[in-house]
Amino acid sequence: MAARLLLRSGLRAAAACRAVRVSAASRCMSTGGIPTDEEQATGLEKVIMKAMRDGTDPYNMMKPKGYAGSKMDPHLVPSITNKRIVGCVCEEDNTAVVWFWLHEGEAQRCPSCGAHYQLVPHELPH
Ligand SMILES: [Zn+2]
């Protein structure tokens, strides 16, 4: 008899617990729940979140990818116009920078070391 009473009270407690969980969940669902950052972001913040999720870097905040500098894998130089000044530190220990204009089109070589650079169009986010 005591075991039955204990079993019933245990089952009631479990059912009550389940009911509380369901009611709490339904209460959240009825109000729409707590929106995530992406759901409530608007404007520029939303554009930035989408770009970061897609793996792009709208503000060049991440470390640039390393390129070999060869003809097949040139250094990519983003530009909002059709040309850009590029400074090449030809060797790691050099103290002088070789500056030259990089124009739109095929990859160009650094006049000193011969590393290849290519201009790629880049749009400002706003
Ligand atoms: Zn160079």
UniProtKB/TrEMBL annotation:
The keyword Mitochondrion applies. SUPFAM superfamilies: Rubredoxin-like. Pfam families: COX5B. GO terms for molecular function: metal ion binding. Gene3D superfamilies: Cytochrome c oxidase, subunit Vb. It is found in: Mitochondrion inner membrane. Zn(2+) binds at residues 88, 90, 110, 113. Its main location: mitochondrion. This is Cytochrome c oxidase subunit 5B, mitochondrial. It comes from Amphiprion ocellaris (Clown anemonefish).
